[in-house]
Amino acid sequence: MSGDTGTPNQGGTRYGSISSPPSPGPQQAPPGGTYLSEKIPIPDTESGAFSLRKLWAFTGPGFLMSIAFLDPGNIESDLQAGAVAGFKLLWVLLWATVLGLLCQRLAARLGVVTGKDLGEVCHLYYPKVPRTLLWLTIELAIVGSDMQEVIGTAIAFSLLSAGRIPLWGGVLITIVDTFFFLFLDNYGLRKLEAFFGFLITIMALTFGYEYVVARPAQGALLQGLFLPSCPGCGQPELLQAVGIVGAIIMPHNIYLHSSLVKSREVDRSRRADIREANMYFLIEATIALSVSFFINLFVMAVFGQAFYKQTNQAAFNICANSSLHDYATIFPRDNLTVAVDIYQGGVILGCLFGPAALYIWAVGLLAAGQSSTMTGTYAGQFVMEGFLKLRWSRFARVLLTRSCAILPTVLLAVFRDLQDLSGLNDLLNVLQSLLLPFAVLPILTFTSMPALMQEFANGLVSKIITSSIMVLVCAVNLYFVISYVPSLPHPAYFSLVALLAAAYLGLTTYLVWTCLITQGATHLAHSSHQRFLYGLPGEDHEEGRTSG
Questions:
Q1: Which of these, 310, 291, 292, lies nearest to 80 by C-alpha position?
Q2: Scanning 301, 373, 410, 449, which has its CA 20 to 30 A from the CA of 150?
Q3: Count of structural domains within the chain
Q4: Is 29 within a domain?
């Protein structure tokens, strides 16, 4: 990567073996187009000099990507980590965000260099059976994330209406608001990105307000943030750590980010332009995830201060002696440690700091759910188009995903109680962690391929760091499964878990195998997998060039 100049490559070589010619100028959205139908031009500035104008032109995809770091699943994970472990797991939040940034950097780089998103590259390189299974796992992750958004939004409506809107009613309202948001991107890409920025600002202000009024102990907070230890911790704290990782690094978000960066016009025949785009996208992603980190920190610190080692009886007494005394009955009158969720969290904040804190919490929760709704829609559409080459309208795509999310959620809301919904939220966070290898392994595989990425392929340090992430995630997931299996309620469940585990391990093993080929284990490559060493055959090259 030395000798970087602003001159085009000899012969106009395009980077990435499946790259497409650069767009000659701004493109108009075709009928039924999506986010990527509009291209944002990049202003010309002095070569080699940092430009705020250029950074502003590249700003957008990173903030949309950061929404997944702020969805209701993250909020639930944050408050429970604070309630269970106090400030002890703040360092897990910090390093999970850093690891998430590294994964998103690879996703953005793949999209910039090749002109294809991760789903499209998987379609071109993986055989039919593995890529179909891979697609199903990512769709499962998207539906799981959508269920969390439905739960969070329904609880926000219940809090804002003082319980007048039941949980099942809030779930049904999400059907209406989802389709309302579909019309937003008809007003232009930059306006849509600005709207998401507005929602992030609401979350920063609302959760920041809770942080200010809670006044967490700053010394203990800084110690928990920078000292990676957890004295006196056991399995509950470890499961919360798993939930933090699963909530922060979401598999579908890696696919999403690799698509979002394609909305900027980058001349991929020029090495300097590619390098510049990678730099600006990394700066933007760093800023966006720094904002998301502080928002998550606000929530975890507030509940680490207000809820850590709090008993149900103490929570009952606090609410019974406040202006929100009608809410006191949601806490059992016993000396067990309170099991807080996003509903009880809002209530106890209102009891401690006044009704304004409850309503401000609900507004922040509503912003988290609503912002995640639209990015989840885009992720689903990009994944389906990339893996299956199916171009559905946004309406059809949302109808499918939201139906899969709403049906089980509304049944729980009608026939069970709030604790079951919150328990489902926790399970969905762990599910995201279990599915994470199906995003990290492909992105590590393809960004390590010199035939695909050329000089922008991962270096040794990137390979070591990303591989370490993968080993850590797999180890934590294995520990979770081993801990979970003995708690199964009936022996019949063991056969189902064994079947799912076999499919999971089979697909993971295949992805690890192909990843090792690109890391230098060339002796593992069969004749049918030479493409992982040398790129696509000639006919696939042409298909990639003309279809991009």
A1: 310
A2: 301
A3: 1
A4: no
30 pLDDT higher than 60: no
pLDDT digits (tens, 9 = 90+) for 128-141: 999 999 999 999 98
Contacts of 356 (CB under 8 A, 6+ apart): 350
CA distances from 180 to 38, 74, 356, 394 (A): 21, 24, 28, 12
Residue 62 covered by a domain: yes
Kindly state whether residue 348 falls inside one of the protein's structural domains: yes
Q: What is the largest CA-CA distance in the chain?
A: 77
**In the predicted model, is pLDDT for residue 492 greater than 80?**
no
Q: Which helix (H) or strand (E) holds 323?
A: none
> What's the pLDDT score for residue 377?
79
Taking residue 312's Cβ as centre, other Cβ atoms within 10 Å add up to 18
Tell me the per-residue pLDDT of 97-154, one tens digit each, with 9 for 90 and over: 999 999 999 999 999 999 999 999 999 999 999 999 999 999 998 888 888 888 888 8
- Token pair of 133, please? 């299974």
- Name the band, by pLDDT with cuts 50, 70 and 90, for residue 178: low
- Pick the more confident residue, 438 or 173: 438
Nearest to 373 by CA among 68, 61, 137: 68
Q: Which of 275, 277, 371, 264 is nearest to 41 (CA)?
A: 264
- 538, with CB counted inside 10 A (0-12, 13-18, 19+), is exposed
Integer Cα distance of 430 and 28 in angstroms: 41
> Is 507 among the domain residues?
yes
Helix axes 118-125, 437-447, angle to 10 degrees: 80
Is the alpha carbon torsion for 486, 492, 493, 494 positive or negative? positive
Dist. CA 449–CA 126, nearest whole Å: 14
3-state secondary structure of 28: coil
3 state SS of 23: coil
φ, ψ of residue 337 in degrees (nearest 5): -65, 135
Alpha-carbon span 89 to 192, nearest angstrom: 35
337 beta partners: 311
Structural domain of 455: 54-547
CATH for 371: 1.20.1740.10
For the stretch 344-365, pLDDT in tens is 888 889 998 889 999 999 999 9
